[in-house]
Amino acid sequence: MAADSCKQFRSQILNKLKKQMNQQPIKIAVFGLGGVGGYYGAMLALRAAATDGLLEVSWIARGAHLEAIRAAGGLRVVTPSRDFLARPTCVTDNPAEVGTVDYILFCTKDYDMERGVAEIRPMIGQNTKILPLLNGADIAERMRTYLPDTVVWKGCVYISARKSAPGLITLEADRELFYFGSGLPEQTDDEVRLAELLTAAGIRAYNPTDIDWYIMKKFMMISVTATATAYFDKPIGSVLTEHEPELLSLLEEVAELFRAKYGQVPDDVVQQLLGKQRKMPPESTSSMHSDFLQGGSTEVETLTGYVVREAEALRVDLPMYKRMYRELVSRTAN
């Protein structure tokens, strides 16, 4: 190698090392450590442990869940093929201890959004991006009303995960999908960076520019699945085998609503969604069904009531949705 080439090579290496030494760590906070936040927070924490300080992952948890995580020295995650313990950079019930971060994965239930937004404010800086992973068709729009000066992206995930006990997250299947985006026509540098980070963490992450379509499609599926499993009080496998006509009616009705609302729904969307439901583990159910069984707050207004109200506003008749919504609301009242 010529002397000049050697000098150039050394210069490149030195510049690279200087850049790495001056590089600030990427900071991610996961707010809400249930099934969704727990799994993705754990995967990110595993990645952070391998980055020598270039990635910091903080978890916000509470009560017995937080105590169990601290006692065990991490969060245990059990999937059909893995059983591991993940340790974050920080786990706390006080977001102020974390400070400002680059990204916040907001993983609570919809009915906790307003309270949660108030709690995460100490972690929001000038360049913070918030990615809500809640069930709902208008989650980002509603969150922006609380945080008008903060960038709120859109996202949705496909995952069968539960907080089975304090300190324990279980998955019914290894397969998961993670979609997110800013909604802008072209990807931003911050989106590319997060997509690369999620992928490096072993997460099946995608950053489509048409994120609204993915949100819509996910909502159609989760709305129908949640409504049917809660109404019939059965897991998805039993609903498919015993109540498929009613399930098909719900799918056709929600597709009709979104055609009226947006005008761009594929003709085969019902079969697409039905195919996804058939691939779900037969024993799996919706979080809304689980909430009904536990007798606590539910997402019935977000997942079922939203469809009924939008249909009424657009003068679209959805008899199956209306029937099931009335029954579910009456159960909530009782």
From TrEMBL:
Pathway: Cofactor biosynthesis; (R)-pantothenate biosynthesis; (R)-pantoate from 3-methyl-2-oxobutanoate: step 2/2. Its EC number is 1.1.1.169. One of its GO terms (biological process) is pantothenate biosynthetic process. Residues 28-181 form the Ketopantoate reductase N-terminal domain. It comes from the Bacteria. It catalyses: (R)-pantoate + NADP(+) = 2-dehydropantoate + NADPH + H(+). The keyword NADP applies. GO terms for cellular component: cytoplasm. Catalyzes the NADPH-dependent reduction of ketopantoate into pantoic acid. Belongs to the ketopantoate reductase family. This is 2-dehydropantoate 2-reductase. It comes from Porphyromonas gingivalis F0570. The lineage of its organism: Bacteria, Pseudomonadati, Bacteroidota, Bacteroidia, Bacteroidales.
